[in-house]
Amino acid sequence: MSAFNGQSNSQLILALSKGRIFEDTLPLLEAAGITVTENPETSRKLILGTNDPNVRVIIVRATDVPTYVQHGAADFGVAGKDVLLEHGGEGLYQPIDLNIAACRMSVAVKNGFDYETAVRQGARLRVATKFVQTAREHFAAKGVHVDLIKLYGSMELAPLVGLSDAIVDVVSTGNTLRANDLVEVEAIMPISSRLIVNQAALKLKRERLQPIIEAFERASQSKSQ
Ligand code: AMP
């Protein structure tokens, strides 16, 4: 059921992705009395120790975090709402919005492309994105016909080389769009990262997990105030 099979119910595995989510989760872990003893940016290790011998952190791709937690290979994890919407959230308990790694999901086009007119005239838009589910739902709700082109990265390139008319991507400062002569034409939804917990682990390891969930909740609330 859980990773590292045979471990006792006191062992916890937390799934995180490198970069912003890892960095923004560290203060929440500290609030729960947990210090990660290795840095994933300098270490090649994928399983990191903490000051608590019963808690380990695994480093996985952001889009894989829900999969590890869903299957119980990690007991809990932190994943962006963007990633959770694409995953579907099956088998996951999502107790709290951690208010970290905040950004927004937006539609962007090449500077000069008249998005409003294209939409008003009922043109069929080619949209490149990693976030196919979110894009499909957004354009369906607006009644806009789209051909979705699935990409795995560097979406900003697609309108520049004529692969698509628009992209759906996460935007934080907007610097990446500006650097590539793209403009944000529609904000779809705000995005932040959520704590996710394996449903079976929540029952079997509640005594260990609950205090951590509560510490995360307190720390993320005080941060957002
Ligand atoms: P920015 O230039 O600050 O708007 O950042 C945009 C780029 O960073 C996009 O290509 C995104 O893929 C990535 N990005 C920014 N914020 C986040 C986030 N919270 N979660 C995931 N990716 C992000």
UniProtKB/TrEMBL annotation:
Stored InterPro entries: ATP_PRibTrfase_cat (IPR013820), ATP_PRibTrfase_CS (IPR018198), ATP_PRibTrfase_HisG (IPR001348), ATP_PRibTrfase_HisG_short (IPR024893)
Q: Where in the cell is it found?
A: Cytoplasm
Keyword Membrane among record annotations:
no
Q: Which SUPFAM superfamilies match?
A: Periplasmic binding protein-like II (SSF53850)
Alphabetically ordered keywords of this record = Amino-acid biosynthesis, ATP-binding, Cytoplasm, Glycosyltransferase, Histidine biosynthesis, Nucleotide-binding, Transferase
Q: Name one Pfam family in it.
A: HisG
Q: What is its EC number?
A: 2.4.2.17
Q: Which domain of life is it from?
A: Bacteria
Q: What reaction does this catalyse? A: 1-(5-phospho-beta-D-ribosyl)-ATP + diphosphate = 5-phospho-alpha-D-ribose 1-diphosphate + ATP
Give a GO cellular-component term: cytoplasm
A Gene Ontology annotation in the biological process aspect, one of them, is: L-histidine biosynthetic process
What metabolic or biological pathway is this protein involved in? Amino-acid biosynthesis; L-histidine biosynthesis; L-histidine from 5-phospho-alpha-D-ribose 1-diphosphate: step 1/9
- In what residue span(s) does the ATP phosphoribosyltransferase catalytic domain sit? 61-217
**Main enzyme class:** transferase
Recorded GO MF terms: ATP binding; ATP phosphoribosyltransferase activity
The text the record gives for the protein's domains is:
Lacks the C-terminal regulatory region which is replaced by HisZ.
Family recorded in the similarity comment: Belongs to the ATP phosphoribosyltransferase family. Short subfamily.
Q: How does it assemble?
A: Heteromultimer composed of HisG and HisZ subunits.
- Function of the molecule: Catalyzes the condensation of ATP and 5-phosphoribose 1-diphosphate to form N'-(5'-phosphoribosyl)-ATP (PR-ATP). Has a crucial role in the pathway because the rate of histidine biosynthesis seems to be controlled primarily by regulation of HisG enzymatic activity.
Identification of the protein by name: ATP phosphoribosyltransferase
Source organism of the structure: Rugamonas apoptosis
